[in-house]
Design a protein that fits this description.
single chain; Structural Genomics Hypothetical 15.5 Kd Protein In mrcA-pckA Intergenic Region, Chain A; alpha+beta; about 190 residues
């Protein structure tokens, strides 16, 4: 589902750096987002820039408060991410928080608000500025499974190579296509 359109223009732009934990060399992105983006919409932006498919649960941990999808199950105290904007929960630069995607694989992303900038005229938001390396394939087993995939790609005799054959045929770990990411982000605007 695309993010909801805000009726008021942003008053500032957040430059955030997203780094996937537990992966070396690091997989990261630098992104500009409007200050009035909801956490639910930020989730969709993160899905695009990391190459995920939005097929698993997720959550944000900001300080000691968890934000995520509204649930009626009652087993987790989670604040509804649709009701909070980034500027409300992270009002200043140099603040760090985490975003976890797929609670089974446990893809934890460190997010840092590097700067809060003025809005430039006709600035496309959200926008990816730069990054390194392709996001890992989904359902690979988290950082541990990703590490096994990379080892199997590098070593033809690796015991797991046959299990990863389909992924090895198409996955390029060093690939980073900034134009494709920004084209996908345009669909969220």
């Amino acid at each position: 589902m695309p993010p909801k359109k805000t009726t008021t223009p942003p008053s500032s732009v957040y430059q955030i750096k997203i780094t996937l934990k537990g992966i070396r060399p690091p997989i990261w992105r630098r992104v500009l987002v409007p200050d009035n983006v909801t956490l639910a919409d930020l989730h969709l932006i993160l899905q695009v820039v990391m190459g995920w498919k939005d097929s698993h649960m997720h959550g944000f941990m900001i300080g000691v408060i968890e934000y995520g999808e509204a649930t009626t199950e009652g087993f987790r105290a989670v604040r509804d991410e649709r009701r909070f904007t980034l500027s409300e929960v992270v009002p200043k630069a140099k603040t760090k928080f985490t975003y976890t995607y797929d609670f089974g694989d446990e893809w934890v992303h460190d997010i840092e608000v590097e700067e809060i900038l003025p809005v430039a005229p006709d600035q496309p938001l959200p926008q990816c500025l730069t990054g390194k390396r392709a996001g890992p394939p989904e359902d690979i087993g988290g950082p541990w499974g990703y590490g096994a995939l990379i080892e199997a790609m590098a070593k033809p005799t690796h015991p797991e190579r046959a299990n990863f054959a389909k992924i090895i045929a198409t996955f390029k770990p060093e690939a980073f296509d900034l134009a494709a990411i920004n084209q996908a982000l345009q669909k969220l605007r």
